Amino acid sequence: MRQFVKYVLATITGIFLMMVVFGIFIFSVAIGLASSVNKKVAMPDNTILELEIKNMIVDNSSDDPFQYFIAGGQDLSSTSVSKIRNTLRQAKGDDKVKGVFLKIGPFDGGFASLQEIRQSISDFKTSGKFVYAHADYLDEKGFYLASAADSLFMNPAGDFFLNGFSSNIIYFKEALDKMGVKMQAIRVGEYKGAVEPYVTNTMSEENKSQIQAYIDELYSIFITEAAQGIDMPAKELRAMADNFTIKSVDDAVDKGLVNATLFIDEVKAQFAKRSGLDQDELKFVSYKRYHAPFNKDVEIEKDKRIALIFADGEIGMGKGVYGSIGSEGLSETLRKVRNDKSISAVVLRINSPGGSSLASDIIWREVKLTQETKPVIVSMGDVAASGGYYIAVAADTIVAQPSTVTGSIGVFLIMPNAQELMEDKLGLHTQTVKTGPYADFGSIDRPLKEEERGFLQGYADRVYSDFITKVAEGRSMAKDSVDKIAKGRVWVATQAKELNLVDVLGNLDTAIQIAKWKAGITKKVRLDIYPKPQNPIEMLMNYKGQVKTNALKEELGPIYGFWKMLSQYASSESKGVNVQMRLPFELQLN
Question: What angle do CA 418, 409, 369 make, to 5 degrees?
């Protein structure tokens, strides 16, 4: 017995010591990696800034030393619109920077983000410096971005397809019927098509018309701006796309969309030729490593600051994590900047398709209280719709990119009835003891009663009425006028401005300038950015959810969206009632 106790104690001690050593190791690696990432690099003369666009394009991100290791070697790095914008602004006046090398890889990003990056590239070119672009593969989005460059080169073995925009939605009703699951949907607004894939096998005319209007407007923006970039008549470029003229890199070179086919090393030789320097005199530096000192001769408004708050992702209850908006987390941030007397104005950058109606309302209240004490300017990213629009309407001014997707003023909720699946398919039978006829309301093992469906419809109607009332108050419109353009209808910002849902078409810089003007700031101003950068341990913890998401996407493939939607609807806030203010369809352009 004594020997057994000795071995147990020795084992426990060994495990404890291993945990301590491992903890010290992880902490040391974290500090080392973090310090190396944040270390500023002095720029050499004759710098060519490498602007690599790949993976996920996000509004704001921090360099994460853990992402490669935690993801099992998978590259999870993202392209930050804010970092690109700030870098190009500084590089524009930096004598050490001779030009920009725009490297376009596979990426996933919204049209408004691409538009903002493209505007920054165009602004950089006004300095007289040049931009060369290179890609192995291009579609419409990639070409739209590349068209801002002085010259576009492609890999000789690459691919280039130009055939227009499309958007498809997968309908699950028949599959659910075969599984024995009936989705019970309640919605307000005939354009709120989020429930359609679960209750029908075909697209409604209302949903089809709004999607058609959406892709037509974005297509028009793409054709107009890309054609201007390559100095080609818009009609000619549109004809090429509509007729599927461009099916290869050779086609693109032949029609003047691409300057030449070159490998990357040959493109770098072109930089030397353009600069009048030997190739070994040029230094190619990643934009993520670029650092130019702030101009000390510029006058700074010392006692006034602007808070720039990034609200990115779906809206839900709680603190929220990176890539999502938590009602509690964003509310805390808004209260903090509201009570900080040194902050003179707030710019709220929204990039959200919406989410929980309750969480959206909690955030709306904090935006409203902040707006009553200091100017609040909303800047919309790729999408600020439904709940994303709800939290914007209390602001003084709403700024959006022309291609921003917004509106979608409507609500819905969905509850599954899995009685047939449980009883007939799986042989599961539920027995319920209750105090009254409705005590088991929200159970998935039975269909809704008519009275319950009526209660849910009334509940959704009240939430919708509150929605359009807040829009009417925030936009100084009559409630009936809001209702006419609401009904869940999605609008592109160019259309939304005509409807008074948006004030100004512009980018984040436009919103910051308006905030300065409203706060009476005439000099340069420093920005307080929220949320604050994560420390290495927070980064490590945050990647748990990201790795899980990536694994699910890989395993589930095209039905990941279906699983995601069901899991969101299943998370109820009270008695199974989870009213959603969410976009009516997944915004995917093909």
Answer: 110
